[in-house]
Amino acid sequence: MKVLLVNGSPHAEGCTYTALKIVADTLHAEGVETTIFQLGIDPIAPCRHCCSCGKLGKCVVEDKVNEFLAIAGDYDGYIFGSPVHYASAGGGLSAFLDRVFFADSVGRKGLFKLKPGAAIVSARRAGTTAALDQLNKYFLISQMTIVGSRYWNMVHGMKAEHVLKDEEGCQIMRVLGRNMAYQLKCLEAAKAAGVPLPESEKPIATNFI
């Protein structure tokens, strides 16, 4: 079992990373392998809606998106972390997720279907629930199971050391890690028991004029 955690902050080891690291350490304790994927500071282009990903099997723009898509299928669960910017996810991560999930959908890759996913957000003070709502929509439209914790998946602080002082936030990250591990173990047990996957239907697209 493997989980891919994405640090959507421009800071390699800032608040968002600190929260993700707590989740990763908890997953390790539960016997789950993890990788933290750093989005970094290089520009992430927005989606062009050219739909070339349907033919290419990847995005036409070569950047972190294709690097992620190349490895995403090897993982069983996903956690996306973001700082809160103006009550939303960071701009780089938003552009990244638009293209990742669109390429998966148009290319019929099914990388995320029926897999567990979670979002975590980091803020100095407010805007966290709005950012979480934005991020969770990527999971819902991709038929993923959203993993929660004992409170909304958030931490607070201006610096990494502040996050570690947010005792409730750190607990939320630990509980999230254990819940993610449990979901993965349940899926593994279901597969071993021969539980069939849900019946699929051909997509229907209705346009409103």
Describe the structure using short key phrases:
alpha/beta; 209 residues; 7 helices; globular; 7-stranded mixed sheet
Number of strands: 7
Number of helices: 7
Largest sheet, strands/sense/barrel: 7 strands, mixed
Low-confidence stretches: none
**How would you classify the quaternary structure?**
single chain
Q: Rg to the nearest angstrom? A: 17 Å
* Terminal Cα span: 45 Å
State the helicity in percent bands.
Answer: 40-55%
Structural class: alpha/beta
What is the helix/strand order? Answer: EHEHHEEHEHEEHH
In what range is the share of β-strand residues? 15-25%
Q: Tell me, what's the shape?
A: globular
- Rounded mean pLDDT is 96
Question: How would you portray this structure in words?
Answer:
The radius of gyration is 17 Å and the shape is globular. The protein has helices at residues 15-29, 53-56, 64-72, 91-106, 128-141, 160-165, 167-192; strands at 2-7, 33-38, 77-85, 88-89, 116-123, 145-146, 154-156. The chain contains seven helices and seven strands; from the N terminus they run E-H-E-H-H-E-E-H-E-H-E-E-H-H. The chain is an alpha/beta fold. Strand 3 (77-85) and strand 4 (88-89) form a beta hairpin. Strands 1, 2, 3, 4, 5, 6 and 7 form a seven-stranded mixed sheet that branches. The longest helix has 26 residues, at 167-192. Helix 1 crosses helix 7 (167-192). The relative contact order is 0.18. The model has no long low-confidence stretch (mean pLDDT 96).
